[in-house]
Amino acid sequence: MELKDFDKDIYELLNKELARQCDHLEMIASENFTYPEVMEVMGSVLTNKYAEGYPGKRYYGGCEFVDEIEQIAIDRCKELFGCAFANVQPNSGSQANQGVYGAFLNPGDKILGMDLSHGGHLTHGSKVSSSGKNYESFFYGVELDGRINYERVADIANIVKPKMIVCGASAYPREIDFKKFREIADSVGAYLFADVAHIAGLVVAGEHAHPFPHCHVVSSTTHKTLRGPRGGIIMTNEEEFAKKINSSIFPGIQGGPLMHVIAGKAVGFKHNLSPEWKVYAKQVKANIKRLGEVLVSRGYNLVSGGTDNHLVLVSFLDRDFSGKDADMALGRAGITVNKNTVPGEKRSPFITSGIRVGSAALTARGMKEEQFELIATRIADVLDDIGNESKQAKIKDELTALARNFIIYNKAVF
Ligand code: DSN
């Protein structure tokens, strides 16, 4: 029986979500549109299979084909990141990070990560996450210019003496200097862990500095700039670390791996390894750069003055409206972004004084600088007149027509 006949409630909501994704301009920096063929394997028979363990060492029978699938995913992941070992089983980036901590740390050990309100991630030691509950967490941040000051990170590391330094961010528009982080880690005898979830698609295309050979361990999600299925991965070059990572993921924190998603990761990696991937990654950067330039020309401040990657942070510290106001006004104009704290933040994390805008998803739809220039102009038009809802409605009509010229999916179920 087809979904539309069996469960109209869910079917109709899926189609509403399809229309929302197609008609709005998706600019949340952590989102993307994965490939139809990735969604095809995620909806496949693989969802039925239990395969606790790793290829060749499973706790269940009937794993001969999923063994081959997981091995292909592992081999492609290693080739993509140029590393010796990969674990493709983490169900998410958060679980990948939890797995890394479990492999390298004991409860109560000190970690030093980037402050959430400065662009870090919950799993980098936030007190409300298990990373901040199970380990003693300390933080570095950005200066008022929006950039990491590596000398200051070194000073903090020297005082804290962490067992692990976490680098990588969720809202940092500048390149991360993994070499400098490694020097800091070495100076205090810490492991260096990079979470490249946001920038992975750029890293593997040579469009951002590479975390290897500087980092002891690297995690990522596969669904952000990598454009694959929703999930996590962990990479390392040391066999001893790889063994610990494998046991930390299974049986440490996960049971049966999601084989349909692991197959999706393999298919996604095949895209990431193709020559076209470099073209996509370059375009992601060119598009957001153009958008940032237009916003600056219209008088808006970008944190750090610009971007080296796939996102910009627009600061409203000098305006009488908040990140939340901007997020809602842009939503009414058909542009989806998220409110974000900015350096020197004076408002609460629920209100904020900024927005984070990313280019990965619209670039996947085929948009280029010309479209990003128009979108940036309309973003500025909305922000300049933030209380004008009828203007926002008109802009929404214009942008919906633009979005419909860049069709990404013609059905909700693959
Ligand atoms: N939620 C993701 C982001 O928006 O950056 C990180 O997990």
Automatic annotation (TrEMBL):
Annotated site, Plays an important role in substrate specificity, chain positions: 223
Binding site for (6S)-5,6,7,8-tetrahydrofolate: 116, 120-122, 239, 348-350
Catalytic function, reaction form: (6R)-5,10-methylene-5,6,7,8-tetrahydrofolate + glycine + H2O = (6S)-5,6,7,8-tetrahydrofolate + L-serine
N6-(pyridoxal phosphate)lysine PTM sites in chain numbering: 224
EC annotation from Swiss-Prot or TrEMBL: 2.1.2.1
Cofactor: pyridoxal 5'-phosphate
Entry-linked SUPFAM superfamilies: PLP-dependent transferases
Alphabetically ordered keywords of this record: Amino-acid biosynthesis, Cytoplasm, One-carbon metabolism, Pyridoxal phosphate, Transferase
Subcellular location, record wording: Cytoplasm
Described function: Catalyzes the reversible interconversion of serine and glycine with tetrahydrofolate (THF) serving as the one-carbon carrier. This reaction serves as the major source of one-carbon groups required for the biosynthesis of purines, thymidylate, methionine, and other important biomolecules. Also exhibits THF-independent aldolase activity toward beta-hydroxyamino acids, producing glycine and aldehydes, via a retro-aldol mechanism.
Family in the record: Belongs to the SHMT family.
Quaternary assembly: Homodimer.
Name the record gives this protein: Serine hydroxymethyltransferase
Species for this entry: Campylobacter magnus
Gene that specifies this protein: glyA
